[in-house]
Specification:
Radius of gyration: 34 Å
CATH topology of the largest domain: Rossmann fold
Protein name: Transcription-repair-coupling factor
EC number: 3.6.4.-
Number of helices: 38
Strand content: 15-25%
Function: Couples transcription and DNA repair by recognizing RNA polymerase (RNAP) stalled at DNA lesions. Mediates ATP-dependent release of RNAP and its truncated transcript from the DNA, and recruitment of nucleotide excision repair machinery to the damaged site.
Number of domains: 6
CATH superfamily of the largest domain: P-loop containing nucleotide triphosphate hydrolases
Shape: globular
Oligomer: single chain
GO molecular function: ATP binding; damaged DNA binding; DNA helicase activity; hydrolase activity
InterPro entries: CarD-like/TRCF_RID, CarD-like/TRCF_RID_sf, DEAD/DEAH_box_helicase_dom, Helicase_ATP-bd, Helicase_C-like, Mfd, MFD_D3, P-loop_NTPase
Length: 1165
């Protein structure tokens, strides 16, 4: 007999589920039993996301959402979080085509392994999968469990055993850990980047015990924070130990014939080599057939299916089999049958029936007990009619007649302010809410989220209106993270590691060829030397203490670099001639500089409280480089001298925020700001971004471009003259003579290299009056040279936003099969493609040909000869993913921000400049997906090919700066101040030329006459007769050793040397004596150089100190030393101070020289 108030468990669950996210009412029960299916009909737009969110909230377990394709999955992942706080994840797809010759990126494998490992224990939230991901078989869960490893502080663990375990789990042993699946072992330290982890770890052993576990930074290699535990997953989705290789071999022999060629897949795997695309032979590494994803689902899982899954699955299976048939003919790579890697649609749907599931549909359903029709319908036409007298008439009429709740949805705080401004004329003032249930009473509401398309819900009397319903477009934001900074000094000085055979410049001996490094022993003391070869087979051994004399040769191609004769006078004459020319160049530069200095600019004052509030509005963390650049810009503006700063940062690295903060400072000081851009499209994008960023501030922002009618332009001219406009963004129309400003204080120039000579002259005329901030991704060499020589200040933003992957770049001849594969690889993962063909007359034909080649694609065309409004419409449609291939000209070079476009194909890439190609490549790779750039060419000559290979080799992020220097090397460097200088640069090399020029400018500034001697940096030579080196058993990799030697040689003071010391200990463990001596000797050398000491030499019996003619030590103190300590000191010639002392102990020797320098520093002239 039940109590009267007794409620069954099922009824309790249903009651629990009845709390709707909208109005506390539920309209259908959730299925509970296997094969229990319920259909929900009449859904439109973002109602899908709302119903998914409601089901996720109500179901006491994991919900799996299955979509027809990746694009739908990504959209739901973005939209659902607006309506629920439950975790929403997506299972990463391999992002390759079936049987592809590419392997998935390591980051993708890492994310997949992490998701698969967590999946069986997930008990809330949702996981979203496209149907083709669900059809793919996966590794057995037992494999993940067997190869997962937990490491804790204090745990007993043999280093050798751990290395063996890592190798068995598929981790690669490297010299320096950079990406997932790598480890590096150095003495008591082991660096490791586990799969599924966001950061790499450094494990410090004490014997066979884990002493500490610390996170470290990939770029700086410095440790960040200590952790107690690491969870380790295998590096691949299949085992790669010896047993697995044997199993692979035996299963291969059952299915395929064996060939003997070394490049044959069977032979490669047999040797433990993992060729690209090996994942498609995954079944051969397991003794049982691969399981399906269904085997991972927790028991209490509910499935939601969206769209016509049957058609999508059938189509995928058909395409898969076609691809299998077309590719199985390659004898080097015979393929595993599709049913070993995927399940067919029949198996898929029979397995789906084993789970309770809900099908969400757009159509109205027949009346059945398992069917529920909801009351969603499309919104009436509400779009703003720009150009009409009453642009908001439709919305106004709707709001007057609709009696329920109207909820507006925008994507960000800034867009919220823009929408509120838009609604003010029709007297709509919505209330801000964070959850839909807060809109249960009739009224006007506003919420922030990613919902894309609105709807009407008649039953609940709810109208949900998205920004795109009103304006037809939405703004996509890219999240940045606080990431590592890159040393810009090292970018400039060491743009590429030295390779044997490369030309280098020795300050005293001329241009030779680098041949590597060697360790030599002299008098029982080991030292490391660079080997340089010169003309007539001569060799020169350079001790690493003289590394400051070496610089990389830049100035024309490597093949054309001269090679000098040791001891000849050709080099001395070349240096002398260059020095004379450089003096004239320096004088000319100084003249331009002094003209600027003679007309001081406005000295801005900073309001720290207001500025802090403005910074708080920025929704992301600034990167360290951004922070440094912002500080430099604001500091320049607060000086009495007019600012002229160049900010160089790769596409999407955050230059715009730097510009916005400068504009804010100008506005606070009641000054106007002009933002000059090369194209109308970029003007529109900046206009949207600036309005969004300044939305909460009383700032008037306008745009001047071809989009404006003559009447509107006149009104803008008038407002600028009256000071009613704070920020005016525009194309070259900003340079018109009849545009007069009330008080212009700041000019921001974006992509200066895109302007013509005449426009540049007009910009140059403004330079002496207003502060100028120039933004560029790839500085043209002349601009770069001027910045490097001190005429303009240079800031480099080299820190990429979080999870931004470098663009994989291929230089290939045109091939239709390659084209089809590249496009399909992108659109099947839900992405978009730029196809660049820079000939307007033939572009229609190219688009037609592409449509025949890839019938699966939706194609549109965009070029500069289209009507401006048509072009804007095409660009906005592409931005909103209404089609997936844009066939275009170089119109996309600036300002088109489409984070979902991750493949660019450039036909006849050989006809474009290097800077242009870098800009175009920067259009893709603006999200965390692997991006691809294909540079298609006919069979071309070597120089053009070399330019393309330069861009292909500079895949790493932040390459824009290095690229401009590459351009300099290939074209020669005659652009600084005319062609007559290019000869000097070619003879002595760009790096040395720039160093001499910088010193010449400084000499003239200080009133000194430049000469060859004072144009090159004089460093103290120091010889302590003790081993000073980085032993190869301490740092194995020769390039890393050379890099540290260069950094030690270039360190400016003890602070930098101490940082290097900390880094060496951090990365490689306890310092050997020889390395301690190296750092101490370097420190003594830096101090001696400041004192004007040419050379210090010391051995077991004493030594000498040789002074420069212009040394800084007080001669009176030296005389006193000679008189009072005759038994130690005596003079040898006019400039040598000898000392006699028992210094057989090396530490004592270093201490003695240190005390001598201490005394000198206390007795200066």
């Amino acid at each position: 007999m039940k109590d009267e108030g007794y409620i069954s468990r099922t009824e309790m669950i249903q009651l629990f589920m009845s709390q709707s996210i909208i109005d506390k009412q539920y309209r259908y029960l959730l299925p509970q039993q296997p094969n229990d299916k319920r259909q929900i009909g009449q859904l439109v737009g973002s109602a899908y996301a709302i119903e998914c969110a409601e089901i996720i909230e109500r179901h006491p377990g994991l919900v799996i959402l299955i979509t027809t394709d990746m694009q739908s999955a990504l959209r739901l992942r973005d939209e659902i979080p607006q309506f629920t706080k439950q975790p929403i994840a997506i299972l990463a797809d391999w992002e390759t085509l079936p049987y592809d010759s590419f392997s998935p990126h390591q980051d993708i494998i890492s994310a997949r392994l992490s998701s698969l490992y967590q999946l069986p224990i997930m008990n809330s939230g949702a996981l979203i999968l496209p149907i083709n991901t669900l059809m793919q078989r996966v590794c057995p869960y037992q494999f993940l469990q067997a190869h997962a490893l937990v490491m804790k502080t204090g745990q007993q663990l043999s280093r050798d055993k751990l290395r063996a375990q890592l190798e068995q789990a598929g981790y690669r042993s490297v010299d320096q850990v950079i990406e997932h699946g790598e480890f590096a072992s150095r003495g008591a330290l082991l660096d490791l980047y586990p799969m599924g982890s966001n950061e790499p770890y450094r494990i410090d052993f004490f014997d066979d015990e884990i002493d500490s576990l610390r996170l470290f930074d990939v770029d700086t290699q410095r440790t960040l924070a200590e952790v107690k535990q690491i969870n380790l997953l295998p590096a691949h989705e299949f085992p790669i130990d010896q047993n697995a290789i044997e199993l692979f071999r035996s299963q291969w022999r059952e299915h395929f014939e064996i060939r003997r060629e070394a490049e044959h897949l069977y032979q490669q795997v047999s040797k433990g080599i993992w060729p690209a695309g090996i994942e498609y032979w995954q079944p051969l590494f397991f003794s049982q057939p691969l399981p399906t994803l269904f085997s991972y689902f927790p028991n209490n899982t509910l499935l939601i299916t969206i769209g016509d899954l049957e058609s999508a699955a059938t189509e995928f299976w058909r395409n898969l089999n076609q691809r299998y048939e077309s590719r199985r003919v390659d004898p080097m790579r015979p393929l595993v049958a599709p049913d070993k890697l995927w399940i067919n649609s029949d198996t898929l749907f029979s397995q789906l029936k084993a789970w309770p599931r809900i099908q969400l549909k757009q159509d109205k359903l027949a009346t059945k007990s398992a069917n529920t029709n909801l009351s969603y319908q499309a919104l009436p036409e509400l779009a703003v009619k720009s150009g009409q007298k009453k642009p908001l008439d439709n919305l106004h009429r709707f709001s007057e007649t609709f009696t329920g709740s109207i909820v507006f949805s925008v994507e960000s705080e800034g867009r919220k302010e823009i929408l509120l401004d838009l609604l003010t004329p029709i007297k709509l003032h919505p209330t801000l809410i964070t959850q839909l249930c807060q809109a249960s009473q009739p009224g006007h509401y506003l919420m922030i989220g990613e919902a894309e398309q609105g709807f009407l819900d008649q039953e609940r009397q709810l109208a949900f209106i998205c920004e795109s319903d009103l304006l037809g477009k939405r703004v996509n934001r890219r999240q940045q993270d606080n990431r590592r900074t890159i040393n810009t000094d090292s970018l400039i000085r060491s743009l590429a590691e030295l390779r044997p055979g490369q030309p280098v410049v020795h300050l005293e001996q001329g241009v030779g060829r680098y041949q590597g490094m060697t360790t030599l022993e002299a008098g029982g003391i080991k030292a490391e030397y660079l080997i340089l070869s010169y003309a007539e087979q001569d060799k020169l051994y350079i001790p690493i203490s003289s590394l400051h004399l070496i610089s990389r040769y830049c100035g024309g191609s490597e093949q054309d670099a001269p090679i000098h004769k040791l001891g000849g006078d050709v080099w001395q004459r070349a240096r002398q001639k260059a020095a004379e020319k450089i003096r004239d160049v320096a004088a000319e530069l100084l003249d331009t500089y002094s003209q600027r200095a003679a007309k001081p600019g406005f000295q801005f004052q900073q309001d720290h409280q207001q500025y802090r509030l403005f910074c708080q509005d920025f929704p992301f963390d600034t990167t360290p480089d951004q922070e440094k650049t912002i500080n430099a810009v604001l500091n320049d503006m607060c000086q009495p001298l007019a600012m002229d700063r160049l900010v160089c940062g790769d596409v999407g690295f955050g230059k715009t925020e730097v510009a916005m903060r400068a504009a804010f400072l100008a506005i606070v000081n009641k000054k106007q700001t002009a933002v000059l851009v090369p194209t109308t499209l970029l003007a529109q994008q900046h206009f949207d971004n600036f309005r969004d960023r300044f939305a909460t501030w009383p700032v008037k922002i306008e745009m001047l471009s071809r989009f404006r009618r003559p009447k509107e332009q006149q009104a803008i001219f008038q407002q600028a003259y009256e000071g009613k406009i704070d920020i005016l963004i525009g194309t070259h129309k900003l340079l018109q003579p009849h545009l007069h400003w009330k008080d212009l204080g700041l000019l921001i120039v974006d992509e200066e290299h895109r302007f013509g000579v005449r426009h540049k002259e007009q910009i140059k005329a403004m330079r002496t009056d207003v502060d100028i901030l120039t933004l560029t991704a790839t500085p043209i060499p002349r601009t770069l040279n001027m910045a490097m020589s001190g005429m303009r200040d240079l800031s480099i933003i080299a820190t990429p936003p979080a999870r931004r992957l470098a663009v994989k770049t291929f230089v290939r001849e045109y091939d239709e099969l390659l084209l089809r594969e590249a496009i399909l690889r992108e659109i099947l993962r839900g992405g978009q493609v730029f196809y660049l063909y820079n000939d307007v007359e033939k572009i229609e034909g190219v688009a037609t040909k592409l449509a025949e080649l890839v019938p699966e694609a939706h194609i549109a065309i965009g070029h500069g000869q289209m009507r401006e409004r048509d072009l804007e419409r095409v660009m906005n449609d592409f931005h909103h993913q209404r089609f997936n291939i844009l066939v275009c000209t170089t119109i996309i070079e600036t300002g088109i921000d489409v984070p979902n476009a991750n493949t660019i194909i450039i036909e006849r890439a050989d006809r474009l400049g290097l800077a242009q190609l870098h800009q175009l490549r920067g259009r893709v790779g603006r999200s965390h997906h692997q991006a691809y750039a294909y540079l298609l060419t006919p069979n071309i000559k070597s120089d053009a090919k070399k330019r393309l290979e330069a861009i292909a080799s500079l895949e790493e992020l932040g390459a824009g700066f290095a690229l401009a220097t590459h351009d300099l090397e290939i074209r020669g460097a005659g652009e600084l101040l005319g062609e007559d200088q290019s000869g000097q640069m070619t003879t002595i090399g760009f790096s040395l030329y720039m160093e001499m020029l910088e010193n010449a400018v400084n000499a003239l500034k200080e009133g000194r006459e430049p000469s060859l001697e004072n144009l090159t940096r004089q460093q103290t030579e120091i010889e302590m007769r003790m081993p000073v080196l980085l032993p190869d058993d301490f740092i194995h990799d020769v390039n890393i050793r050379l890099s540290f030697y260069k950094r030690i040689a270039n360190a400016s003071d003890d602070t930098e040397l101490n940082e290097l010391k900390v880094e060496l200990i951090d990365r490689f463990g306890k310092l050997p004596d020889a390395t301690n001596y190296l750092l101490q000797t370097a420190s003594l050398g830096k101090r001696a150089q400041k004192l004007g000491i040419k050379r210090i030499e010391s051995n077991e019996q004493g030594g000498f100190i040789e002074f420069d003619i212009n040394h800084q030590v007080d001669p009176a103190y030296l005389i006193e030393l000679l008189q009072n300590q005759r038994h130690i000191y005596r003079l040898d010639g006019a400039s040598k101070l000898k000392f006699i002392q028992d210094l057989s102990n090396r530490r004592q020797r270093l201490k003695f020289v240190e005390e001598v320098l201490n005394n000198f520093e206390q007795h200066l002239l």
